[in-house]
Design brief:
It is built from eight helices and four strands. The chain has 173 residues and is an alpha+beta fold. Strands 2-1-3-4 form a four-stranded mixed beta sheet, sandwiched between helices. Helix 1 crosses helix 6, helix 2 packs antiparallel against helix 6 and helix 4 crosses helix 5.
Length: 173
C-alpha cells in the first residue's frame, strides 16, 4: 500500500529532476529528507498538528536545496505524505538508475566483504547485465556464511542459511 502511495510522488520528483538536469542533487536531497522522516523522533514532530507546512519543509530540506525541492516537500506536507519519504526516495533511485542505465545491487553478507571481493562481484554483475552496476553492501550475521545478492529482479542466494533452508525443503518432500 505504501509503495502505491509513494510511486506517483517518486515519478513526479524524477520528472522534475530530469527536466532540470539535477538527478544527483535530488538524490542527495531526497536521501537526506528520507533519513530525517524515518527517524522516530522526527516522525513524532512531523505528525504534530501544530507543525506548519513551512516548518516541515525547513526541518526536512537540506541546506542549499533548490526551490523546486522545497515546493515538492511542501506538496508532500499538504497531502500528509511526509511519512512516505523513505519509499519515495527509494523509488526515485530506481527510476534514476533505469534512466542512467545503471543496475542497483545490494550485497548482504554474513561478514564485511573486502573491497576486492565487492569489486569482483560488481564486475561479474556488470558482465551479466551489460550495464554499470552501483553496489551497496550490508552485513547480516544471521546468514551464517556466504552472501545474498539482489540486483534488479534477480536474487542470488549463496548464503549458508539459504542453502540450509533449501536442503530442509528438499528433505521434507
Amino acid at each position: 500500500m505504501t509503495l502505491t502511495i509513494a510511486r506517483p510522488y517518486a515519478r513526479a520528483a524524477f520528472a522534475i529532476a530530469r527536466d532540470a538536469g539535477r538527478f544527483a542533487p535530488w538524490s542527495d536531497a531526497l536521501a537526506f529528507s528520507a533519513r530525517i522522516a524515518a527517524d522516530p523522533q522526527a516522525a513524532t514532530v512531523l505528525g504534530h498538528p501544530a507543525l506548519t507546512h513551512a516548518d516541515a519543509v525547513a526541518l526536512l530540506a537540506p541546506e542549499g536545496a533548490d526551490e523546486a525541492f522545497a515546493s515538492f516537500l511542501a506538496l508532500l506536507a499538504e497531502n500528509g505524505r511526509l511519512p512516505q519519504l523513505p519509499e519515495i526516495a527509494g523509488l526515485y533511485e530506481q527510476l534514476r538508475a533505469e534512466a542512467e542505465h545503471v543496475v542497483l545491487a545490494k550485497i548482504t553478507s554474513a561478514t564485511a566483504l573486502p573491497d576486492t571481493e565487492v569489486e569482483q562481484i560488481r564486475s561479474a554483475l556488470k558482465r551479466r547485465f551489460g550495464r554499470e552496476v552501483q553496489v551497496e553492501t550490508a552485513v547480516d550475521d544471521s546468514l551464517i556464511g556466504g552472501a545474498v545478492i539482489a540486483a534488479g529482479d534477480v536474487v542470488i542466494d549463496g548464503s549458508l542459511k539459504g542453502k540450509l533452508a533449501r536442503l530442509q525443503s528438499a528433505l521434507a518432500h
